[in-house]
Amino acid sequence: FVRALRSKGRKQLSPPGPWSFPIIGNLFQLGDHPYLTLMEMRKKYGDVFLLKLGMVPVLVVNGMEMVKQVLLKDGEHFAGRPNMYTFSFLAEGKSLSFSVNYGESWKLHKKIASKALRTLSNAEAKSSTCSCLLEEHVTEEVSELVTVFVELSSKNGGFDPRNAITCAVANVVCALCFGKRYDHSDEEFLKIVKTNDDLLKASSAANPADFIPCLRYLPLQIINSPQKFYQALNGFIALHVQDHLATYDKDHIRDITDALINVCHNKYATTKTGTLNDSEIISTVNDLFGAGFETVSTCLYWSFLYLIHYPEIQAKIQEEIDGNIGLKPPRFEDRKIFPYTEAFINEVFRHASFLPFTIPHCTTADTTLNGYFIPRKTCTFINMYQVNHDETIWDNPSLFRPDRFLNENRELNKSLVEKVLIFGMGIRKCLGEDVARNEIFIFITTVLQQLKLKKCPRAKLDLTPAYGLVMRPKPYQLQILRLRGGFLIQF
Ligand code: HEM
Q: With a 6 A CB cut-off, is 428 part of the ligand 1 pocket?
């Protein structure tokens, strides 16, 4: 393929790139932190270069302008997903996020999923004090999270908040998708949270079978264990969806699963191709469930780490809470009057860049980029980490400095916020950006309204990530002090 690409390049230039070994290509040159290696390679080869991962040619795109070219201006040409082994067993290839089938029916699928998510998130809250159902679910979960933190603290002093955060965020997704929340100690729930964790660990390095096809047939754990975990997760979701299909009542939409069934039964039911069948409904719920849980909980785990590492930043958020709402529960609409907190969240997105790449893209047709010829079906990596640490955009990018997002009047600089690349952009942009931003805001402000977070005495905090599909911080512990109306209550 690469030879064909390079020879075609005699007439039409192919992108530059490093020399590669037979079979393994440049796979082992990527190291423990591929986004950093690729940033280094950019210095030599420029914003667009080609390497080989195993036997697969991969186009790497860096630099804000080039990324915009690929995701916005030439969006249709780069909107596919590559045919990777790992993607193929995700929801048996019917996944909205990972399916290789890009076209009109995929576009309709995304529209349906987006509408179901929006409708349910904005649905009327059951209690009168919340503006919508999503706000109500999040408020309920964060209040439970504070209780769990207090319990953990009184038992152990310092504790690792990760599991409690994951359970709280998973519960928001469960409530949205299935109208059901679980106790943090529920066994079925913990099993699924653990399966998701195992899945991430198992997929934390690139699966070699994605890039060296013959390895698919070897009974090796690293190659086959992600599949085992995906199947367990699919099974859990399929059970819930089957149950909804059996009890569905069009006059009483309980959650996203019902909303999807409803859309499929109503509006699009007239055209055969314009609807989702039951297994596509399962895979859509699977997409929302999977995407909405690990990303948000990882972001919160990072946020709490930054807050204990920079207590002065935590104090500024607490001042903003005291000044704006005092003891009233935070609401989504408060984001407008919390510029510093919003700046902090955007700085976490930028600095941690816990999703260093988008999900891989793939060209849907022969195309050109920056004067180079790119054939159809070329796997494309978008290096979001590089854009978020580009010195031509960010002053001293390695510093964690929320203030960079505020103008001289201490208002949020929206045009700078738009330069943070964490949800992707264009046709394949994340479906859950609004949900995620609202959810993260409520979690952080509610926790800091009630608790002061502290690092454990003498603990050394490490802000470098452990590399994985979603980059988490290395495990850490924190301590809490309870706040009531600005007073500290010591445990
Ligand atoms: C896709 C980021 C939360 C649903 C994506 C992509 C990124 C991303 C980078 C891939 C874009 C691309 O391939 O170009 C994030 C981050 C989140 C978050 C950073 C939280 C901080 C959520 C939530 C949901 C969600 C809460 C839903 C409840 C999806 C879906 C896709 C997606 C369905 C696939 C879109 C497609 O393939 O067209 N997200 N996401 N995400 N996200 Fe999110």
A: yes
